[in-house]
Design brief:
The chain is α/β, with parallel strands linked by helices and 437 residues long. A hairpin with a 5-residue loop joins strand 1 and strand 2. Helix 3 packs across helix 4, helix 7 runs parallel beside helix 8 and helix 11 packs parallel to helix 12. S-adenosyl-L-homocysteine binds next to strand 8 and strand 10. S-adenosyl-L-homocysteine (SAH) binds next to strand 8 and strand 10.
Length: 437
């Protein structure tokens, strides 16, 4: 039986969803979800963290800042929040005392709560982040966000939704039942949380012993939308968040260093290119429609031909700005020599990079990762066709931080609570069990 979390009926701002348990089993393309976006300026007492310039402007107007001052005040707040990483209005020394007092009465600079931080032995960090509640019946959505440091770059993998409505058969997030869109502020807040944690603000320091890039650049230099969710099903907020993240007077991330990964929401791809002007990654994973229908069920709506045509039309595509094609290596499913040759044939003429991803197993998954020799052989064929260095090194495996393994703790607890209720064990037992999953 599916549990119906019908919060949205009571609270128009609230998130969750009615998602059928049987949807995936029945081979549905998508689970049903009520995607209510909590948009607009922060209500009284809410945090200003993550807001766009327009939302900040509305928040200032709402506490009586005169129209003629708005532009200047937004610029001041923008600098403190996004350039300096201010955590308190009292730091804003060039903002008058009176306005600072008004601001702190009405708003905060609170970050979403970091429920847990896990650090892998390879330096990868994973945060479980709880968003503030949107109403009396919402405990606050939880999402995961992963930081992958290398010597010359630091990549932050962000989520665009809580869970995902799509049901790709090899992806753990796809099994999550709770689904809602994240607001642009919630997407930006993931970068703020990461910068706080690794000391990536002027005058801040990384924690003792932390692995961060040593090339003199920002500790978070790249963003990939490869966490939970399908970014192109939340394109408005994803585009707004990218605008904030790439703003030259604030967080200053280059759009060329932001990559949005999609399972293939063809009708939104052009808009992404035109409005966000970021790099694009496509979760291809199969070279025949019959198999892709099964692995990435959105293929039944938009098939491989339509997807590749949309890639060819992606704004700004050139040899210097290639599309990344992601291909998960599933043993005996999509990893033959013939598959590799067909992959190369299909991508002919598209400026492309190919990223082979070793499958990351999760409890209950029905696939195995291809053997290493098979991956090498596959990559050799792809390499001979002119595509360089394609295998993605798994990172953070010991903390389940790798691609497609993200699934929120709330969701796991809920599943455990259900299981225990069925067995007649009280809810307190859920917490007593700890988090040994
Ligand atoms: N929804 C978007 C972005 C998030 S998933 C998309 O599907 O593109 C990020 C990448 O991880 C995708 O390429 C996805 O197919 C891949 N992925 C999902 N589950 C995986 C797993 N268990 N092992 C390896 N890669 C996985
Ligand atoms: Fe959603 Fe991407 Fe996972 Fe598919 S692979 S279920 S689109 S998060």
């Amino acid at each position: 039986m599916a549990t119906v979390l019908d919060i949205a009926k009571h609270n128009p701002n609230a998130a969750p969803v009615a998602v059928s348990d049987a949807a995936r089993a029945a081979g549905f393309i998508e689970k049903k979800a009520e995607l209510n976006v909590v948009a607009g300026a922060a209500p009284g007492g809410a945090s200003l963290i993550g807001l766009t310039r327009d939302q900040l402007k509305d928040s200032l107007a709402a506490i009586g800042v005169p129209e003629r001052e708005l532009k200047m005040r937004v610029a001041q707040l923008w600098h403190w929040i996004y350039f300096r990483g201010a955590k308190d209005f009292s730091e804003m020394t060039n903002v008058g005392k009176e306005l600072r007092a008004k601001l702190s009465q009405a708003y905060t600079l609170a970050r979403p709560q970091v429920v847990s931080e896990q650090v892998s032995k390879d330096g990868t960090r994973k945060w479980l982040i709880r968003m503030p509640s949107t109403g009396p019946l919402d405990k606050g959505a939880e999402i995961e966000c992963v930081y992958i440091p290398e010597v010359d770059r630091g990549t932050l993998c962000v989520s665009s939704q809580v869970g995902c409505t799509l049901t790709c058969s090899f992806c753990h997030t796809g099994t999550q039942r709770l689904v809602r869109n994240l607001t642009s502020a919630e997407i930006v807040a993931q970068l703020i949380v990461a910068r706080d944690s690794i000391g990536d603000w002027p005058h801040a320091m990384p924690p003792e012993g932390a692995f961060v890039p040593t090339d003199g650049g920002r500790f978070v230099s790249n963003i990939v939308f490869m966490g939970m969710g399908e970014p192109l099903y939340n394109i408005g907020d994803v585009v707004a968040a990218i605008d904030v993240m790439s703003d030259g007077e604030g967080l200053t991330l280059s759009r060329r260093r932001i990559t949005v990964s999609t399972s293939g929401v063809v009708p939104q791809m052009e808009r992404l290119g035109a409005e966000a002007n970021t790099m694009l990654a496509i979760s291809l994973h199969a070279v025949r429609d019959e198999l892709r229908d099964e692995l990435v069920p959105i293929n039944r709506k938009y098939d491989i031909k339509q997807l590749l045509d949309a890639c060819r039309a992606y704004p700004g595509l050139s040899n210097a700005r290639r599309i990344t094609f992601e291909y998960v290596m599933l043993k005996g499913v999509n990893d033959s020599d013939a598959d590799a040759r067909e992959l190369v044939r299909l991508l002919k003429g598209i400026p492309a990079k190919i990223n082979l991803i070793p499958f990351n197993p999760w409890p209950g998954s029905k696939y195995e990762c291809s053997d290493w020799e098979r991956i090498e052989r596959f990559s050799e064929i792809v390499y001979r066709a002119g595509y360089a260095s394609p295998v993605r090194t798994p990172r953070g495996r010991d903390i389940l931080a790798a691609c497609g393994q993200l699934k929120s703790e709330t969701e796991k607890l809920r599943a455990r609570a259900r299981m225990m209720a069925e067995q007649g064990i009280g809810a307190e037992g859920v917490y007593a069990l700890g988090d040994g999953e």
